[in-house]
């Protein structure tokens, strides 16, 4: 739960906050697929907050799955990063909340995203940069979609991060069966083959997500594959 100056927001408030964002290009399935993972991260795992936007010791969260960002905006609003009043303007000409997040306009956004395949390589660079700066505490988290694994840039990042021992790097793959070249069970195996610690969980089970997000993985980067209903299938009720 999060208390703002006006009220307290919890997970069950997120569908209402998302409903404030209207328009014809909402990428609804892309947003609802990430909702549970984003909430567990921001509510229970990430060391971030509106008061720590410039803190060099903060954790970094990179949303690579930038299309359909309504869940991301709803979570940021619930956690006090941005005003609730911004949400109804989503996607309008003068709104800072675009159809893809802009790090210059959205408080708390670490990268501008939406062009698939970029987030994981950027996260690898961020983890390397923090290591070079002698900052062992900040964790780097990146959320990608399973279809992003169709992009070769991700496989280069996967292949590099394991042998480099980037144990402050964490990747969440939202698996809604969107990938063109996927095979059943192949996502976690691909990461494991490159030396990553990997686990596959139910992407709607908050306790399973939290346990997977916080599991120790000394000397290795971590990936959690969060399986949700296939794209365009009815999402489970959030209330």
* Count of individual helical segments: 8
Task: Return the structural class.
Answer: alpha/beta
Spell the H/E element sequence: EEHHHEHHEHEHEHE
Instruction: Give the neighbour order of strands across the main sheet.
Output: 3-4-5-7-6
Low-confidence stretches: none
Percentage of residues in DSSP E strands: 5-15%
Shape: globular
Mean model confidence by pLDDT: 90
* Share of residues in helices: 25-40%
CA radius of gyration is 17 Å
What is the end-to-end distance? 15 Å
Major beta sheet summary? 5 strands, parallel
What is the total tally of β strands?
Answer: 7
Summarize the structure.
The protein is an alpha/beta fold and 239 residues long. The chain has 8 helices and 7 strands, in the order ββαααβααβαβαβαβ.
Q: How would you characterize this protein structure?
A:
- With 239 residues, this protein is of the alpha/beta class.
- It is built from eight helices and seven strands.
- A five-stranded parallel sheet has the order 3-4-5-7-6, sandwiched between helices.
- Helix 3 crosses helix 8 and helix 5 (119-132) packs parallel to helix 6 (152-164).
- The model has no long low-confidence stretch (mean pLDDT 90).
SSE layout:
Blueprint: E1 2-3, E2 8-9, H1 14-19, H2 28-32, H3 35-45, E3 60-63, H4 70-78, H5 119-132, E4 140-145, H6 152-164, E5 169-175, H7 186-193, E6 197-202, H8 206-214, E7 222-227
Structural key phrases:
single chain; 239 residues; alpha/beta; 5-stranded parallel beta sheet; two-stranded antiparallel ribbon; 31% helix; 14% strand
